[in-house]
Design goal:
It is built from 21 helices and no strands. The chain is mostly helical. The chain has two domains: 222 residues, no CATH class; 212 residues.
């Protein structure tokens, strides 16, 4: 339990700091600069998946399976090191051509992206080693160090230095004379590079404690295990991020900046899902052998949906308060109409994650890859068809269609392979009820906190009436 809490801090705290940085970035960056920032991190996500190609998950599997643990560590790291060096050389060789092709405004941005991605790939195995050998304090300390360095240099480069130049605060002359205000988003990437470099240096001693060795049998088995994870990872990144790239190319940087900022409000739902997954996933596996395991999973799914629907309703009823807390300038407020769609899409993503227990417990994880590919195909086709016709809101609807379809398909397959008695009528009721309240409030009222609170109490009241027996049972435990 203690270790779970420590790992939870390592997972949640960086995300919480990143949420705080959304406000900071949208306050000091223009829509176009924020678009450039988003564009950069979309490609970071793709490159990170490609450069690690599922080896982190494969490492967990084979470290516990193989007797010679040191060989697994050394073989895994040497493999990623070799492929990362090859990727580094090729990408740097063709950096100008690739940078222009994928739409970077400045080639230096792509060069920074390459170095960050390679450094992040090289720390995958050391971080995995800390986790598999149960060293949560060291793991968490390094994760927190990384995000704190990143946040510090963000504040230094974007706020303190330009403020110091303007108001005459202390600042070394060589910094003041070389600061480029037009490179603002580039300084965010430099902050990331510094954080990644420090993290790599701190973790490097872990690798040096093992004898350098390379086992062909081990790597062959690991690569066989990891390639479906690579495919699923690319599909997942496509579902999450392709919409931003399409909007940038079709609607322009200003629109993409506003869309990306509005989408960030959905991080509230993402944090809820992530926190829930952190606690629920170990329970799912530990409880699998119990006689009433399936009934317990069904109850958990229902209450996850209730809580997620309530959170979605809360955000939308108080969006006029929440949006200014997360976003900076008014130019980022023009696409807030995507927020309810994004929240519902992410809720379905959370339900899908809960459903995934059926193929994890039955060792049929290939289905997870299939479902992710289906979602990616839906995402790609609908984005290219609808965004040019409907505009940016079509991207949000596409995300909902992808996650909704993946959820339905996974549920139908689960009935065949691992039947869990989910309360489908109750789940649909709470989702539809919260959606109906959101639509009613938006259409008939809007901008009235008292009435918003009444709508929230209506949901809670109906919840209490329907679930009072089950609530009493839960409270007695």
């Amino acid at each position: 339990m203690k270790n779970t809490v420590i790992y939870g801090i390592a997972a949640v705290l960086p995300k919480a700091i990143n949420v705080a940085l959304v406000k900071f970035h949208t306050l000091y960056l223009s829509n176009e600069e924020y678009s450039s920032n988003t564009h950069f991190y979309v490609w970071i996500a793709y490159l990170n998946v490609i450069l690690t190609y599922g080896m982190e998950t494969s490492f967990f599997r084979f470290f516990n399976k193989e007797k010679e643990k040191g060989k697994v560590v050394s073989t895994s790291f040497l493999t990623i090191l070799s492929t990362s060096i090859i990727a580094l050389l090729l990408l740097l060789l063709f950096k100008n051509e690739i940078s222009n092709f994928i739409g970077f405004s400045k080639p230096i941005y792509f060069e920074l992206l390459i170095w960050i991605s390679v450094l992040d790939a090289l720390v995958a195995i050391p971080f995995a080693y800390l986790r598999v050998t149960n060293r949560p304090i060291r793991y968490t300390a390094i994760r927190i160090l990384n995000i704190c360095i990143y946040a510090f240099f963000n504040i230094l480069f974007i706020w303190y230095i330009p403020t110091a130049i303007k108001k005459g605060y202390f600042l070394p002359e060589f910094i003041a004379s070389n600061y480029d205000a037009s490179f603002k988003e580039g300084y965010i990437f430099i902050a990331n590079l510094i954080a990644s470099a420090v993290t790599f240096i701190v973790l490097l001693p872990i690798i040096f404690q093992f004898k350098i060795s390379f086992d062909r049998r081990i790597i062959k088995n690991m690569l066989s295990y990891s390639w479906p994870i690579l495919v699923a990872g690319l599909a997942y990144i496509t579902n999450e991020n392709l919409d931003k790239l399409i909007i940038k190319s079709i609607m322009g940087d200003f629109e993409m900046g506003a869309y990306a900022a509005a989408y960030k409000i959905g991080v509230i739902m993402s944090l809820f899902i992530f926190a829930f997954k952190l606690g629920a996933e170990p329970f799912f596996f530990n409880y699998a052998s119990k006689d009433n395991a399936k009934e317990a999973y069904a109850i958990i799914m229902k209450w996850f949906t209730i809580a997620g629907s309530l959170l979605m309703l809360f955000v939308m009823l108080y969006l006029d308060i929440i949006a200014p807390l997360l976003l900076g300038k008014n130019t980022f407020f023009q696409l807030l109409n995507i927020v309810p769609i994004v929240l519902l899409a992410l809720l379905f993503s959370g339900i899908y994650n809960n459903l995934s227990i059926w193929y994890k417990l039955t060792d049929k994880t290939k289905y997870g890859m299939y479902f992710s590919i289906i979602g990616a195909l839906i995402t790609i086709s609908l984005l290219f068809i609808l965004v040019p016709i409907v505009g940016s809101i079509a991207a949000a609807w596409t995300t909902l269609a992808a996650y909704g379809s993946m959820t339905v398909i996974s549920y139908l397959y689960s009935r065949k392979h691992y039947l869990i008695p989910y309360k489908i009528k109750d789940i649909l009721f709470y989702i539809l009820f919260s959606v109906a309240l959101i639509i009613a409030y938006d259409y008939f009222v809007t901008d009235n906190l008292w009435i918003a609170t009444v709508f929230l109490l209506v949901y809670l009241g109906v919840l209490f009436i329907k679930e009072k027996k089950e609530l009493r049972k839960i409270l007695k435990r």
